[in-house]
Amino acid sequence: MSGIHARFHVMQGAFALNAEFTAPSRGVTGLFGPSGAGKSTLLRCIAGLQQTKNGYLSIGGEIWQDDSKRIFVPVHRRGIGYVFQEPGLFPHMKVRRNVLYGYHRIAGRERAIQFRDAVEWTGIAELLERMPGGLSGGERQRVAIARALMSSPKLLLMDEPLSALDEASRAEIIPCLDRLHRELSIPVIYVSHALREIARIADTLILIDAGRISKIGPIHDLLPAVCASADGDPFSVLDAPVFDHDDTYHLTRLQTQFGPLWSGRIGTEIGGVVRVQIAARDVSIGKTIDEQSSIVNQLPVRIHAVTELSAGHVLLELVPADDDGDSTVILSMITRRSWDHLQLAVGQTTYARIKGVSILR
Prior knowledge:
The protein is an alpha+beta fold. The protein contains 8 helices and 21 strands. The chain has a 6-stranded mixed beta sheet, with helices on both faces. The chain has a 5-stranded antiparallel beta sheet with strand order 2-1-4-5-6, with helices on one face. Strands 14-13-12-15-21 form a 5-stranded antiparallel beta sheet.
């Protein structure tokens, strides 16, 4: 039985965790929910750090816990890499020794990830001879990730690894996470209460609130509904290959289900797949193509659904005009006045206008 299969029941005072889920055996599964929802508690259950009742956990067909059969694999034998909010590096060891700490604790035949790979994926080659005290927050977290990888884990758990970092350090870590997403052949469970952070790297999304899992599925399928129901700034994500670069104007053209999409220059080779985010407030609607507009992207779309938001706004779910029923959605947030003025309706074909400068990695 492949993949991750988990079931846990925990009581902590007035809080109860009743969670059951199945996740893929490869890729990043994002665990999203508000503070106090039970995200970290669930991760501790998976790691074997939390006592449970009637618990069950299997990874790739290997049973780590089955309370009905009195099976419980202890923490040190579970083959888990754990990255916390705080890096927890050994201050008296150079970066090299910190990274190699877990490597020497496993048998040679079990070493699936080599030192050079962990160093390259996390971009820490220039840090190896430095002491942790002289590193930035982002550098320390990258070292912590490399150390977790050196234990050649069967499962990597990441508990809000960016929450303690400033914006500059977060920007430093994100490319590292992108690289791990491409390179790792093991499952990763990534916890955050920041939806944009999860949407940057996750393939699967698990929604948890008040100790219960409400939904699980591909992130492209769940994101529109989550954005429509949550407070904040709705956005959509697109995975698309790089078609070409325009060096004269420092632009990149992506080939999406909606057609060509121009963005600011992206440092990815032609043919490489990138994920971009588009804020719903940056997507306007037009009934025709405006040849005199500075907006470079005007994509033919069909209005698939509309949701009423507060403060006189509506959120539109847009699919390609020739939608085959299995398309990614672009979200657009416009005023109710614009909806009425343009006489828009569900099922109508129109144009999504998106500024190239508003498309973010």
